[in-house]
Specification:
By secondary structure, this protein is α/β, with parallel strands linked by helices. It folds into 2 domains: about 170 residues, VC0802-like, CATH 3.30.2130; about 160 residues, Vaccinia Virus protein VP39 (Rossmann fold). Helices cover about 25% and strands about 30% of the residues. The chain is built from 8 helices and 16 strands. The strands form 3 sheets. A 7-stranded mixed beta sheet has the order 4-5-3-6-9-8-7, with helices on one face. The protein has a 7-stranded mixed beta sheet with strand order 12-11-10-13-14-16-15. The termini are far apart.
């Protein structure tokens, strides 16, 4: 087993440890790129919603990942987990074999843990099974409690440790969350609105935009401000607006909670109060989906304004379930990435000047 050195609650390991992150389907390569840029992290596999890696240095930088839903210490891969109820017995047996003492020693180097931590379980699976996620949680909890005198809670908010079961076909990838809370739960999300963009997706769009500190970025349909806040945190000069006054106020509240300064206004995205060729990048989650139908007239006007305000070297990244409504004269489609979001499959379209 590796030896550990604790220094101001940062853990350094003298041999590689396996980790994995879970992300949005379609954005695995983006998250893999962000992870690979961290010191000591070597990506070993990119698969459906999962990026596996080894980490030979501090785990602490992993808690700063922006494009992933969460990151975990890899504690095992369980095989033969089928769709029938007989697999529940296998899950319980596997759970009893996890070396949670080693895991808590490692994670205890990142943050304080009690001697007998309260634990929660998060579970998900791909495809149909004859058992539910609640049954998975109960069964795995029973397996863990057969070996440890730890208390289980169904409320992750009160847990010291979270065990993640991610099942794909007959494999279960098992990890212990590095942080106390999920990375996708940003503390600045004070004002919530239905259909608001997931922060990791916003961060991934910005990474695809290759935005750098000091560049001017706008979101013409900013909603509650997630893209603008993520951009400002990355060092961009962020400005945006929305036709909905309540959305604008929500964006202001969230920006204040994030401690960033962004320009926010109530405006018509088809008539932006901006000079021509004044913006480096446009990144936006356009109105789409079940709650707000994509409007062809709105899209036409927004596209015209995006093209007007972008600098000749500018780039536009637009998320929508109706990419066929995006039309430009000078901007050309360079990349289209289909993702899974809110039970639908919208597309991130990347446009650049030809």
């Amino acid at each position: 087993m590796a030896r550990f050195v604790l220094d101001e609650w940062l853990l350094y390991v003298e041999s590689d440890h396996k980790i994995f992150a879970l992300t949005t389907r379609g954005l695995e390569a983006v998250s893999a790129g962000e992870m690979a840029a961290l010191p000591g992290v070597i990506v070993t596999e990119t698969a459906y919603r999962r990026v596996a890696a080894t980490c030979e240095r501090s785990f602490a930088p992993l808690l700063g990942l922006r494009t992933v839903d969460d990151v975990y210490l890899d504690v095992g891969m369980w095989e033969g987990i089928g769709h029938t109820r007989e697999s529940l017995a296998a899950l319980q047996w596997y759970a009893a074999q996890i070396d949670l003492e080693a895991a808590t020693e490692i994670i205890g180097g990142l943050r304080p843990l009690p001697p007998e931590p309260v634990f929660s379980i998060t579970a998900s699976f791909v495809g149909r099974r004859n058992y539910s996620t609640d049954e998975i949680k109960k069964t795995v909890a029973e397996g863990i409690r057969s070996e440890y005198r730890w208390e289980y809670t169904a409320d992750d908010r009160t847990a010291d440790l979270n065990l993640r079961i991610f099942m794909v076909h007959e494999l279960a990838y098992v990890g212990v969350r590095l942080g106390k809370h999920p990375l996708h739960e940003r503390v600045y999300k004070v004002a919530e609105r239905a259909g608001a963009l997931k922060p990791p997706v916003a961060a991934a769009m910005l990474r695809l935009a290759e935005i750098v500190a000091g560049q001017r970025l706008i979101d013409p349909c900013c909603g509650s401000g997630t893209i603008l806040i993520e951009a400002a945190l990355a060092g961009a000069v962020a400005q945006g607006g929305d036709s909905d006054a309540e959305a604008v106020e929500a964006a202001r509240v969230n920006a204040q909670a994030a401690g960033v300064s962004i320009g926010i206004a109530q405006w018509d995205a088809r008539n932006l109060p901006l000079h021509a060729a004044s913006v480096n990048c446009v990144v936006s989650n356009l109105p789409w989906g079940r709650q707000i139908a994509a409007d062809e007239g709105l899209y036409q006007g927004v596209c015209q304004e995006i093209e007007r305000v972008l600098k000749p070297s500018g780039r536009a990244l637009l998320l929508t379930s109706a990419p066929e409504l995006l039309h430009f004269e000078r901007l050309k489609l360079r990349k289209a990435i289909e993702i899974s979001l809110f039970g639908q499959t919208p597309t991130i379209s990347v446009f650049e000047v030809q």
